[in-house]
Write a structure and sequence with these properties.
- The protein has one domain.
- The protein is built from 6 helices and 2 strands; from the N terminus they run H-H-H-E-E-H-H-H.
- It has helices spanning 12-23, 27-34, 44-58, 104-119, 125-134, 138-153; strands at 67-71, 92-96.
- It has a two-stranded parallel ribbon with strand order 1-2.
- Helix 4 (104-119) crosses helix 5 and helix 4 (104-119) packs across helix 6 (138-153).
- The protein binds zinc ion (ZN).
- The site of zinc ion (ZN) has 7 residues, from helix 4.
């Protein structure tokens, strides 16, 4: 089996802290302990309302969101290196369907990331500042979402 480097581009202290969880099969218990319950945002309509509420709270002046939907894809997250496919020009938000079975914080993190792209195209400091403005623990949740990705890759369920 090929070993995936989930923390590519992350500082060594992050690697030292979180790689052992993957290596020792402790990701699920770590995540369950931190996020005991999942969310109930299951339909595209609920997801749209959720995203729109965040947008109204923090980015009222940006153009409206065209569409928000769950899509079938295994890759939940762009990495720190920024390899995700942004379609921000269309003001459309697509969220991996595996996020239905994830903590709300992770769903929020992905929505916040996409919303921030409405304003900042690249992963600049201004971009991350905007993300943290919308979700103060954005960076922690990003790391936890990579851990969750490792579960999805193993076809493991969190809840
Ligand atoms: Zn991005």
């Amino acid at each position: 089996m090929t070993k995936i480097d989930y923390f590519q581009g992350y500082p060594q202290n992050i690697r030292d802290q979180f790689e052992p969880l993957i290596k020792n099969g402790e990701v699920r218990s770590y995540l369950l302990n931190k996020y005991p319950i999942g969310h109930q945002i299951n339909s595209d309509k609920q997801l749209y309302e959720y995203a729109n509420k965040l947008k109204q709270s923090f980015m009222k002046k940006s153009p409206p969101i065209t569409k928000v939907k769950y899509v079938k894809q295994k890759n939940l997250i762009f990495t720190a290196l920024g390899d995700h496919t942004s379609i921000s020009g269309k003001h459309e938000i697509r969220i991996a369907v595996c996020l239905k079975n994830a903590p709300e914080e992770m769903l929020q993190m992905l929505v916040v990331h996409e919303l921030a792209h409405f304003q900042e195209k690249d992963h600049t400091r201004a971009f991350y500042n905007l993300c943290v403005h919308m979700q103060p623990d954005y960076c922690d949740v990003e790391v936890d979402t990579l851990l969750y990705q490792s579960m999805v890759d193993q076809d493991e369920k969190l809840y």
